[in-house]
Design brief:
- It is a single chain.
- The radius of gyration is 21 Å and the shape is elongated.
- The model has no long low-confidence stretch (mean pLDDT 93).
- It has 5 helices and 2 strands; from the N terminus they run H-H-E-E-H-H-H.
- Helix content is 70%, strand content 5%.
- The protein has 150 residues and is mostly helical.
- The protein has one domain.
């Protein structure tokens, strides 16, 4: 398999993760009970911070949207990397490895602080990136016996 396919898969999975995070996490409805009480407490307790009146709900919503923005940008980046991987995919291996490590740590973070849905998405993204790395082997050239430039 070619790394292009695995990078496109990582792009699509990351975009789905962004959409579901936005729908369920950032703009999801809070059910009645303790969660609703906590959200209300986050909204009503306002404070002045660096010249702006804010509350913890503002931070919660802002960080959630920040995660959505990052996930969306990463999905676009993975799609662009797939296009670059058509010619010399082995040159992209360090970039893919960086995101592989990041999504692996992201999965541990999600398991620790959130729930199984994001963990599964992040493991699938990491696996797609890992498969892209494995598939991105340098190709043998017709001049294999020739010394290469440094």
């Amino acid at each position: 398999m070619k790394p292009v396919l695995f990078l496109r898969l990582a792009a699509v999975l990351t975009f789905i993760h962004a959409v579901l995070h936005t729908i369920g996490g950032v703009f999801g409805k809070v059910g009645p009970g303790p969660a609703a009480v906590a959200v209300e407490a986050m909204k009503v307790n306002q404070f002045l911070l660096m010249g702006h009146t804010r509350n913890f709900w503002d931070f919660y919503r802002g960080f959630g949207l920040g995660a959505t923005i990052s996930l969306t940008a990463e999905s676009i980046l993975f799609w662009q990397l797939a296009s670059l991987a058509k010619s010399e995919p082995w040159r992209l291996r360090p970039i893919m490895a960086t995101f592989l490590v990041a999504y692996s740590v992201f999965a541990v973070n999600s398991y620790t602080y959130f729930f199984l849905g994001p963990v599964i998405a992040e493991i699938l993204i990491a696996a797609s990136l890992g498969l892209a790395i494995v598939a991105a082997k340098p190709q043998a050239t017709a001049y294999a016996g020739m010394p290469q430039r440094a």
